[in-house]
């Protein structure tokens, strides 16, 4: 099959590649760029495990072709930590608040939470739950994921994190 030439930015680095028109963005990231943080859970846009940040939006990367990302600025979970390995505040938050168990949903969940906090730096619990409603977790029951996002929001805003009364 004829391949298309694409150029894009991934985690701050310029990338050039040849891709088949049928290649999904998730497969391009995982198989051609070896960025295996975004996971394949369903390939039908339901689970959110494949979520990446693309041009300022959360995108389920199983729902678009790699050629559609031509010219885009993409960020995956691999692009969250600082160059010296310091965790992004959301990664720290998920660790501190026990926001993961098996970890399969975590890259997509954190990438989605990153965009949620960009759009709304101090979301209510309901806004967090709505904001991550496209990302499924089979393990945690979501409570600690919500706490982790609240922890990160507080830290970013420089206010003390206060646990909501149960
Ligand atoms: S793998 Fe993309 S939404 Fe499930
Ligand atoms: S931690 Fe296992 S699916 Fe979310």
Helix percentage? 25-40%
The overall strand count is 5
Q: Strands of the biggest beta sheet: in what spatial order?
A: 2-1-5-3-4
Rounded mean pLDDT score: 96
As residue ranges, the low-confidence spans are none
Q: What would the principal axes of the Cα set say about the shape? A: elongated
What is the percentage of strand-forming residues?
Answer: 15-25%
Q: What compounds are bound to the protein?
A: FE2/S2 (inorganic) cluster
Radius of gyration: 16 Å
Helix and strand arrangement:
Elements: E1 4-10, E2 13-19, H1 25-32, E3 51-54, E4 57-60, E5 73-75, H2 89-96, H3 106-119, H4 125-131, H5 143-157
Parallel strand pairs: 1-5
Antiparallel strand pairs: 1-2, 3-4, 3-5
Helix pairs in contact: 2-5
Bound molecules: FE2/S2 (inorganic) cluster (FES) (2 copies).
Structure description:
By secondary structure, the chain is an alpha+beta fold. It has helices spanning 25-32, 89-96, 106-119, 125-131, 143-157, and strands at 4-10, 13-19, 51-54, 57-60, 73-75. A hairpin with a 2-residue loop joins strand 1 and strand 2. Helix 2 (89-96) packs across helix 5 (143-157). The longest helix has 15 residues, at 143-157. It is elongated, with a radius of gyration of 16 Å. The chain starts with a strand and ends in a 9-residue tail after the last helix. The structure holds FE2/S2 (inorganic) cluster (2 copies). The site of one FE2/S2 (inorganic) cluster has 11 residues, from loops.
């Amino acid at each position: 099959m004829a391949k298309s030439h694409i150029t894009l930015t991934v985690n701050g680095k310029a990338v050039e590649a040849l891709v088949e028109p049928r290649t999904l963005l998730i497969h391009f990231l995982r198989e051609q760029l070896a960025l295996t943080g975004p996971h394949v859970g369903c390939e039908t846009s339901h689970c959110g495990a494949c979520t990446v940040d693309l041009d300022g939006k959360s995108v389920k990367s199983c729902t678009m072709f790699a050629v559609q990302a031509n010219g885009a600025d993409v960020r995956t979970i691999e692009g969250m930590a600082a160059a010296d390995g310091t965790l992004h505040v959301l990664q720290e938050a998920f660790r501190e608040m026990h926001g993961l168990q098996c970890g399969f949903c975590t890259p997509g969940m954190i990438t989605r939470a990153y965009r949620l906090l960009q759009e709304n730096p101090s979301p209510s619990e309901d806004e967090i739950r709505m904001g991550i409603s496209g990302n499924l977790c089979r393990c945690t029951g979501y409570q600690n994921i919500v706490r982790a996002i609240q922890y990160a929001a507080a830290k970013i805003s420089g206010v003390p994190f206060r646990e909501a009364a149960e």
